[in-house]
Every structure is written in structure tokens, then in C-alpha cells.
Amino acid sequence: MGNNMHLFLDFIPALILVLVASYICGNLARYIGQPKVVGEMIAGILIGPSFLGIFAPQTMSTLFTADVKSILYILSNLGLGMYMFLVGAEVDENKLTKSLLRKCTILSTSGILVPLLLGVAIGFFYYSELSLPNVHPFLFALFIGSALSLTAFPMLARIIQERNLTTTHFGTLALLAASIDDALAWCLVALITALAQAQGVFAGVSAIVFGAIFACFMLLLVKKWMVRLGDKVEKAGSLSINHFSLILLLLLLAIWFTDYIGIYSVFGGFIVGLAMPRHKVFARELQSKFQPVVISLLLPIFFAYSGLNTDLTTIFSNMSLLIPAIVVLIASIAGKYGGCALAMKSIGYSWREASAIGMLMNARGLMVLILVNIGISYHIITTELFAILVLMTLVTTIGATPVFNLLYPTHPKEKRGVIDLKPLPKQS
């Protein structure tokens, strides 16, 4: 009991620092026109070795002991599973039409294929410099390709929503393409983690097969039951505590099961989210019950844990790391922004709109931070590459909002040269 109380007393000050830093940096980010998540990402880095470790190393080591880090790791993984559950629950396949599906396919394919190929090329080129010796070159290259392919879907959704573009073809296309893009990328991540954990080819294939069975079970069988539950919630006007408990239990089982079979827990959370019904009342109740705890408590803990593993000083103090960092950053922008902008232009949008959506798709945000934590947890990447990918994430995420506002201004008089897209027709 004494040891547990001692651990509790050690953990609470660390948690308070995490939440205070997240609150201050998040609100400062909003003040300068950036999404709150950008400030929270920076807060995580500030309390780690990149800042606090330089100016107050003793304080950092006292607050964030090995035991405290273990608790942060557990809570951050729980938070990620729940967060990806909320992301999956926001993906609305009902908005797809044949025309929009064709455009989404072109945009999402360009958004994932071009940066994936560039990332794989970089991975093979820098394998000897940046990889761990026991990691297969193909797995290492595939990991970097995945990191460059991801899009910050929740951040993109918030920007689209804040600009009242959700019901336009532009906004719907961006949202659906980003969701498809990330769904494909996370399937790739599932493959990577399965191969990373596998003791052999058979074990890796088994993890993938069990993952596919799990996804089919959730999306074909459980989803039907959830639709009936959604109908009940819609009639009642609220989600009862019993139904909420069942959903939470289902989510925790999925998180545990996918991690157990060798696929990272975020995949389980995302699939359960996709299985949720899209009824208005159900969606509102789900967000209102999960979001406060996930956004205000668990995600800041994840950012803190990521920040404690990130040492940006290793990049700027070592020229041999600075050059690969610049190469990764340039390739990430050229692949994601360039690929998406060219795809948008090819399907009839103006260069200005094509550039605007390309910049939104180029933001990595929380998604890549999740991926690099997977990489460090499964010993796929080094701490140096971890820092390089975090730096790439910060730059692409911070640049997304101001460049999008410049290309797609809010004020109608400033929208010269930008096509005003009509709202989507209401489905009968």
C-alpha cells in the first residue's frame, strides 16, 4: 500500500504539469490562429528533453521517473484507442455518390501512393544510417513510407467545419478522401506492426488474418446490432448509461484483442468507430460522453509521452541527422501536397483550390505521432528517426492552417479566383 501511495504521489505532480502545459500552449495556439492540437503537440515537446531537459534536467528526471512514464504509456495507449474510435465514428460513408467516389479515389490514391513511394525510397537510401540493425530494410522503408502517407484527418475535419465547408463538394471531397487515405494507411500500419512483432512469416500472416477476421466481424455483424441500438437511442433521445457501458466494454475488448494478436490497439479503436451507427442523436451522445475525457485528459498524456521520447537537439547538433531531416521534410511536402494538388487539378479544380486541399492533406498532426510511437514501442525505428519524424509532423501541421487561409480566404471579397462550390443536394 505504501509503495502504491508513493507512486500515486509521484504521478499526480507530473500529470498536473502535463495538463497545465497542454492548457496554456493549446490556448496560445488558438490565439495565434492555430488549432489547439498544435499547441498540445508543442507542450509535449517542451516538457521533454528538447526543452525542460536542457534548462531543468533534474526537474524533468524527478517528475518523470520510469514508473511515472509506465503509467503515462498505459494511459496514452488507452487514449489513442478511444481517440481513433471517435475518428472512425465520424467517417460518414453515406455521403458517397458515384461521381464523388471517383474523385475521392483519385485524390486519396494520389495522397497515399506518391508519398508512400518517396518514403520507401528514402527508407532504403538511409537504412544503414538511421535503422536499427535487426530491422529488415523493407520493413524500415515501409514504415517511413507510411509516416509520409498519413493525413491529420481530425485536424482537417475541424478546419473544414470551422469554415462552414462541410456541405460543399470541396469540403466533402476533402473529408472523405482524407478518411479513405488514413484508413488505407492504418491498414498498412497494421501490416507493419504484425510483421514487426512476428517471430516468422507464419506469425505475421496469422496476425493479418486475425485482424481481417476481426474487421469483418465488426463491420458485418456488430454493425447491424449497433444500427438497431442507434434506432433505440434516436427514439429515446439519449444514450443510456447501460448502452454507454456496453459500447465502452466493446471498445476496450477491441483495443485489447488487436494488441494481443499483434496489431496495434489504435486499429481496434478505429474499426469499432467505423461500426458505430450514423444516427444524429447517437453520434451527438457518443461525442459528448467520450470526447471530454479523451481530448482534455488522455490526449495531453499521449503528447507528453511522445515529448518525453523526442529530443530535437540531436538533429540540430548533428549535421549527419540534419540532412536526412531536411530530405524527409521536403519529400513529405512534395509527396503529399504535390500529389494531392495535381490530383485535384486533374479532376477540374482551380490551382488555388487544388493547393488549398493539398496543404490540408499535407498536415500530419496526431496521426504521425501515433505512428512514431508505434515504431519506438516495437523497436522499428531509432530515437533519432523518431525526432526527425516528429519535426516533420510539427512543420507540416503548423503550416497547414495559415497557408490554407491564404489560399482559401474566409471573406467573400477575398475569394477571387476561387470557385464557389454548391452545397451537396440533400438525400431523399
TrEMBL record:
Protein's UniProt name: Cation:proton antiporter
**Record-annotated Cation/H+ exchanger transmembrane domain positions:** 22-401
Q: What keywords sit in the KW lines?
A: Ion transport, Membrane, Transmembrane, Transmembrane helix, Transport
Name the PANTHER family for this protein: CATION/H + ANTIPORTER, K(+)_H(+) ANTIPORTER 1
Membrane topology of the entry: Multi-pass membrane protein
The organism that produces this protein has a lineage beginning with: Bacteria, Bacillati, Bacillota, Bacilli, Bacillales
Superkingdom to which the source organism belongs = Bacteria
Does the record's keyword annotation contain Transmembrane helix? yes
